[in-house]
Write the structure tokens for this entry.
Amino acid sequence: MKFLPFLTIGAVLLGCATTAGAGLYRWVDENGQVHYSDRVPPEQSKGARIEFSKRGMPIREIDPAKTAEEMAREQELERMRREQQELIAEQRESDRVLLRAFPTEDDVIMARDGKLATVDIAIGVIFNNLKRMKQKLVGMQQEVDAKLSAGEAVSPSYQAQMSTLRQQIQDAYGQIVQEEERKLGIRDEYARYLKRYQELKNLPGQTGPTQVEGDGMALQLETVVACDGEDQCAGYWRKARTYLEDHAQTPVVLSASAIVMTAPPRRSEDMSLTVSLIPRGDEAGNWVFLDLQCYSTPIGERLCESEQARAIRRGFRPAITGGALAVSRTPPAETLPTPAPGESAAIR
């Protein structure tokens, strides 16, 4: 706001001050007209103005009253400032806890690996339970087949037991998927811890033996595909069944609406496959899960870790989603030794 020359307004101000005996105000109305007075009219009480001393010297400027929008904007900015301060305080406290919990960088990595090992133990328990359940289900199916071949009826209670066992197997596969997702969460969580720890301690980035490869986790998750909606899940399930038939080396012994299983491996060169359709909790979709098992001997374990087995795992997702062609059934380059006499037929 521009002021008139001091000498020009001085007489006006001093004259008004003599009559009023108080300070004076200057304002500009909505038409751009400049006004001087010892009183501010009601309609100008919320507008901008300048207050002068009795000697005509400006002593303060009064800003116009804020609009509702401006007040709301200031309140929002203040709220954001408070939230930022709270976040800063939380981060400082989190940093303090992090440094107290982990004296060294290796302690962060050891804590992460310990949690991952705990989850792996839980997964191992589930797989052991799966072996027993699948063996039992195969035996029950063989009994049913024998009865049907002999023209005998199968009791409803026996069929109900088989149905329950199939559901338990599906539930176990669902638990495995959940535990694998839990491992991913642990890795992400501790990756953030490690990065922040390195920043606070001014350490170089993670290198060398502390880097987690995660091969086992990746292989497991490669055999899990999510589907959404009835049509997509039905299409994925058909492709999964076809994939199993194309790559299994033992015959199909169980084919139900949500699980298809081949016979347990009987030789070191056998691989048994199972595909299962698992509900994704409250979500409107399913998991399609492929499980590959080998003969429980050192030779069989080598087969499950061979490039042939890895190719089957890697090829599952693209074959189901249409991202690439399925892998070939060509045998691996290495020749597996003949199993020793008396080898167990347990499922791996």
Notes: The chain has three domains: 6-62, 102-212, 221-348. The first strand starts at residue 24 and ends at 28. The chain has eight helices and nine strands. Residues 102-212 form one domain.
